[in-house]
Write a structure and sequence with these properties.
- With 118 residues, the protein is mostly beta strands.
- It contains no helices and eleven strands.
- The strands form two sheets. Strands 2, 4, 5, 6, 9, 10 and 11 form a seven-stranded mixed sheet that branches. A four-stranded antiparallel sheet has the order 1-3-8-7, with no helix packed on it.
Length: 118
């Protein structure tokens, strides 16, 4: 099992930046694919970006391409989501998640609130 704890959320003005962190513990972090999801009030949870265990391959949702960057530092057992050019519609609770081999993410953090004011 792996435990995940997010941090770095907060209130920012439109056009600003935030960096979210996801601290992992419990297992060898590099063995796990990691992703960031977000859930806005009244909406379903959507994947934002994902990264493989080595950090070599990444994928992004269309609505964040060119603005967000996912990365990881396996030596620190930490994943990141750098968010630039934030928009009010990026307001949501952001979750990090991990999976060992399944396409479904089995391990989740508690979430961190990101609020973008216009």
């Amino acid at each position: 099992q792996v435990q995940l704890v997010e941090s770095g959320g907060g209130l920012v003005q439109a056009g600003g930046s935030l960096r979210l962190s996801c601290a992992a513990s419990g297992r060898t972090f590099s063995n796990y694919r990691m992703a960031w999801f977000r859930e806005a009030p009244g909406k379903e949870r959507n994947i934002v970006a994902a990264i493989d265990g080595s950090g070599t391959n990444t994928v992004y949702a269309d609505f964040v391409k060119g603005r967000f960057t996912i990365s990881r530092d396996n030596a620190k057992n930490t994943g990141y989501l750098q968010m630039n050019s934030l928009k009010p519609e990026d307001t949501a609770v952001y979750y990090c998640a991990a999976t060992y081999a399944s396409r479904q993410y089995a391990y989740w953090g508690q979430g961190t609130q990101v609020t973008v004011s216009s």
